[in-house]
Amino acid sequence: MRDGVAVPHFLYRDRECGIRPKMSKLHFYHIREGYINFLHRADNRVQLNKGQRRPYVGVVLRIGEHDYYVPLESPKPNHANIKSGGPVLKLDEGRLGIMGFNNMIPVRKYQLLEFDILAEPDEKYKNLLLKQLQYCEKNKNLIFSRAEATYRKATEGKNAFYRKVCCDFKRLERIYDTYRVKKNTQ
Taking 80 as the threshold, does the pLDDT of residue 57 lie above it? Predict the structure, then answer.
């Protein structure tokens, strides 16, 4: 983390409403630590960085007026026990980590700073990021459909499991708009 900036993201922008992939390349960005902390205060299910280099790799997808990012975790031994389905996607059967759609967060463009994977000094981490990005590029449709299904199931209020494990997307949308207004008026 440098200058209050943490976690890389890739940006994928769709200017239309709805969730749909585009055939452009995905890009990585950093997101401001203060923003993540702000969202966490509103919903403790928002993952904190905890001073680590946890990639908050986010497929930027459009849900209504909001861009959402899906956190990506590096591979861990406990991922072997996690079922790939619903709000979690194992990348390459977990060898490249997981994407937690239950932890998606809304974000505005002004919270992003460009990140160059090739400039990453840790070769092992750089290679992991490149492989994750390649996997996500190949599986865009699956990622977008899983994100859409998770959002729908969590916000419709009919699925108790999704309400329990997912961030409160609607609350975060209201809070993040408040954060945007505060930032624009200062």
Answer: no
- Hey, is 32 helix, strand or coil? strand
Q: What CATH code is carried by the domain that includes residue 145?
A: 3.10.129.130
Nearest residue to 106 via CA among 54, 157, 176: 176
The reported pLDDT for the residue numbered 67 is 87
- Looking at the structure of the chain, the number of domains it has is 1
Burial 57-77 (b: 16+ CB within 10 A, else e): bbbbbbbeebbbbbbbbbbee
Give me the pLDDT at residue 165, please: 94
Instruction: Place 107 in a pLDDT band, splitting at 50, 70 and 90.
Output: confident
Q: What is the dihedral of CA 74, 123, 49, 159, to 10 degrees?
A: -20
pLDDT of residue 95: 92
